[in-house]
Write a structure and sequence with these properties.
By secondary structure, this protein is of the alpha/beta class. The chain folds into 3 domains: about 170 residues, Thiamin diphosphate (ThDP)-binding fold, Pyr/PP domains (Rossmann fold), CATH 3.40.50; about 160 residues, Rossmann fold (3-Layer(aba) Sandwich), CATH 3.40.50.1220; about 180 residues, Thiamin diphosphate (ThDP)-binding fold, Pyr/PP domains (Rossmann fold), CATH 3.40.50. About 40% of the residues lie in helices and about 15% in strands. The strands form 3 sheets. The protein has a 6-stranded parallel sheet, sandwiched between helices. A 6-stranded parallel sheet has the order 9-8-7-10-11-12, sandwiched between helices. Helix 3 crosses helix 17 and helix 11 packs parallel to helix 13. The N and C termini lie far apart (about 55 Å).
């Protein structure tokens, strides 16, 4: 057994079934181990390391297992970075493995030399560069431990070329049970803080529950359902918190914040006399730059990461712990109080949520039915809401698609992660690759990647990967020939001084056809349903290119553009 063999065996022991990556000179021993050994791991060759990281990210989000990506030294190691930082800041369990120059070559100006340890340190929750072959097994154990316990995140292991070929001792090759997926090693908030939180919730007339991705990661769906039901509290979510309850849950008012929120959901939070953040950082987008909720409102904050609690709001009760365990205890404490004393007459959160949804859909309906050209994005969302099988997975890029699908996607009948978008850093080029990873994670689901034409240009090389691996991904391109988010910001904040945001329209359907993807181009609104239905029923990968209204001219559910 050599170092490369030890790495492969360690990944096997941790239950890794898929690795997304791209080959390079310094990875040759590692690739040889993957070729020689019987390990049950499927290596998905990508066309770009950035795409590999996004694929691993999408895979991890829909499976709760560690997504693994890999790339070679030098440029390959740098190309992984966008996906690594997105996963780390989005609390996605991801392991990035890079090969590196030989230890003996360090400092001698070999090709592709760079300080990988320093490069990855600020972007990961744990990071190492191997110096000796006997460090490999423990490095893998440490990586899996750090990215599955506490707040999940991304880890990096750098593996020098020569160490991959050094003899390794098989006795060190073992895995710690329980660190294969998140959440591992749950912890509960302090019981005395649980009681204080229960007292505040019991005494509140109109509490609102404000949820982020932490609820989904913890799989605390049933506990959250119990909390909002017995309190009759309205629930709002961040963009990443979608799926904490089903879209149609009667207490779910929908997404709140400057991206995907509307005035009706904003009012739900604004009228609250108590707000409970759960698994949410209360960041700028979710709180509209810390304006909603208002500063004087009492706050309860439950999070697995103590550093997020009270970072942006003065907090009356801090609950540091896993959402599922802590909500179980909170529900018991609250139920005990309700048995002993009924709450005073309170605002019905269910009615608040119902009213917010009614306002939202009444605003949405005429836009979705519009026959105007170019096609309104609302019509595309409505089409997918009607035609997609229930609980399909939709992956959205952060440009044109994100606000529309955050606000109006209505497809899930059960809680869980059925909507993915990269909200931590918002880099374009995410949806197509993350959609591939999501399909490998849940091949029984219909997976749809929605992107702007700017994003398509970032990532279209992966169409070859999609065809080669026979991934039945459905893709929708909003074609408006502009970096719309920036142009809309220039319109609102800079007196319509548009600069360097427009580009030439591409025939995206023809590009996809050149790769072997079945494609349709839609210019007429009345033709959209037929094209989308044909794409969804096609057994292989399919793409629908929609000539769509640009953001600066649209009724986009965005309350505040940058700038």
């Amino acid at each position: 057994m050599n170092g490369a063999d030890a790495l492969v065996r360690m990944l096997q022991l941790y239950g890794v079934k898929h690795i997304f990556g791209l080959c390079g000179d310094t990875s040759l021993p590692y690739y040889d181990a993957l070729a020689r050994l019987d390990h049950g791991i499927d290596h998905i060759l990508t066309r770009d390391e950035r795409s590999a990281a996004y694929m691993a990210d999408g895979y991890a989000r829909v499976t709760a297992r560690v997504g693994v990506c890999e790339g070679p030294s030098g440029g390959g190691a740098t190309y992984l970075l966008p996906g690594v930082i997105e996963a780390n800041e989005s609390s996605v369990p991801l392991l990035a493995i890079t090969s590196d120059i030989s230890v003996g070559s360090r400092g001698r100006y070999p090709l592709t030399e760079l300080d990988q340890r320093a490069l990855y340190k600020p972007l990961t929750c744990w990071n190492t560069l191997i110096d000796r072959v006997d460090q490999i097994p423990n490095a893998v154990r440490s990586a899996f431990r750090h990215i599955t316990t506490g707040r999940p995140g991304a880890a990096h292991i750098g593996l020098p070329y020569d160490i991959q070929k050094h003899p390794a001792d098989a006795i060190d090759v073992w895995a710690q049970a329980g660190h294969q997926q998140v959440p591992a090693l749950r912890s509960m908030a302090d019981p005395s803080d649980i009681e204080r939180a229960a007292a505040l919730l019991h005494g509140a007339r109109s509490p609102v529950i404000f949820c982020g991705a932490g609820v989904v990661i913890s799989q605390a769906h049933d506990e959250l359902d119990q909390l909002v039901t017995q309190l009759d509290a309205a629930l709002v979510t961040t963009v990443s918190g979608q799926g904490c309850l089903a879209d149609a849950h009667p207490h779910n008012a929908g997404v709140v914040g400057s991206n995907g929120g509307i005035e009706a959901t904003r009012e739900v939070v604004a009228q609250a006399d108590l707000v409970m953040f759960i698994g949410c950082r209360a960041g700028s987008t979710a709180t509209e730059h810390w304006k909603v909720p208002q500063r004087e409102v009492p706050i309860i904050h439950l999070d697995i990461d103590a550093a997020t609690i009270a970072a942006n709001y003065r907090t009356d009760v801090a609950l540091w712990g896993d959402a599922k365990l802590s909500l179980q205890a909170l529900n018991l404490a609250l139920a005990d109080r309700l048995r002993r004393q009924a709450r005073d007459a309170a605002v019905s959160g269910r009615r608040l949520a119902e009213r917010a949804r009614q306002i939202k859909w009444s605003r949405f309906a005429p836009l979705a039915a519009s026959l105007d050209r170019p096609i309104k994005p609302e019509r595309v969302v409505d089409c997918l809401n009607r035609l997609l099988p229930p609980n399909s997975i939709v992956v959205a890029d952060p440009g044109t698609p994100c606000p529309y699908f955050s606000a109006y996607l209505n497809n899930s009948t059960v809680p869980g992660r059925y909507f993915l978008t990269n909200r931590a850093h918002g880099a374009l080029g995410y949806a197509m690759s993350a959609g591939v990873g999501a399909w490998f994670g849940r091949p029984d689901c219909t997976v749809v990647a929605v992107m702007g034409d700017g994003s398509f240009g970032f990532t279209c090389g992966e169409l070859e990967t999609i065809v080669r691996r026979q991934v039945p991904l459905k893709m929708v391109v909003f074609s408006n020939a502009v970096f719309g988010w920036i142009k809309a910001s220039q319109k609102v904040g800079y007196d319509e001084r548009y600069f360097s945001v427009d580009f030439t329209r591409t025939e995206h359907a023809l590009v996809a056809q050149a790769f072997g993807v079945k494609s349709w181009r839609v210019e007429e609104p009345a033709q959209l349903d037929a094209a989308m239905a044909a794409a969804l029923s096609h057994p292989g990968p399919a793409l629908v290119d929609v000539l769509s209204q640009p953001l600066q001219d649209a009724a986009t559910p965005v309350s505040q553009w940058m700038g």
